């Protein structure tokens, strides 16, 4: 859970970002381990948002040279960063995993119109399973080689390998975007009780251990990871692009611009 004090401070900083940059934030969510479901007591708050400028900002010769991100340094464990709506939708077009995780986050700090829901509704049409599988398997392989080759390892690093592996499994089996929550991804381990028990044991430890907490290597998980990485996942044929995909994205974009001048009332945080 996010405390009321932290929630209030995050909303304060989001309002400040809107005022400083002359933008309207369409939605803001938690994107890190707190949203995934395996935060440590001292985990950062990874706040990510999508914002829109006034329509005239996009009607410019130098549009491609204009900065399309808002970034702030981490202060008091709050990490606040956002993307311009056009950048976000262009990345969505490419099945960008970060954006797809953002729109599915179970922790929503701010939502000012239907942008996030429109993106969720468009997800089945836009998502490319083969891109997701490649991304998550590559992430798992890189993290395994980089973090889990020592007798003592940081607890959280196991989850940085297991989560993408399970996400790749989900995509391969369902041909759809994986959920962000670790608990939902755990269903891909059905029929592997030893692996499930090892993961649950690590989860309990991590929730009570600082971010830099160390633990002994877990042979059963290492064996599972190595077997999974060695396995060849045959990517499904690339889905033909619907002729209406760009039209769909443009429609979401135009609706966001139309709402720029609407009342900026911040809806309360929701946890699904």
Outline the structure in words.
The chain has two domains: 4-127 and 242-271, Beta Polymerase, domain 2, CATH 3.30.460; 129-230. The chain has eleven helices and eight strands. By secondary structure, the chain is α+β, with helices and mostly antiparallel strands. The chain has a six-stranded mixed beta sheet with strand order 3-4-2-1-5-8. The protein has a two-stranded antiparallel ribbon with strand order 6-7.
Q: Briefly, what is this?
A:
This protein is an alpha+beta fold and 272 residues long. The protein has helices at residues 4-21, 33-36, 85-93, 97-103, 115-126, 129-147, 155-174, 182-185, 193-206, 219-230, 245-258, and strands at residues 24-30, 45-52, 69-71, 78-84, 107-111, 152-154, 214-216, 270-271.
Protein topology:
Blueprint: H1 4-21, E1 24-30, H2 33-36, E2 45-52, E3 69-71, E4 78-84, H3 85-93, H4 97-103, E5 107-111, H5 115-126, H6 129-147, E6 152-154, H7 155-174, H8 182-185, H9 193-206, E7 214-216, H10 219-230, H11 245-258, E8 270-271
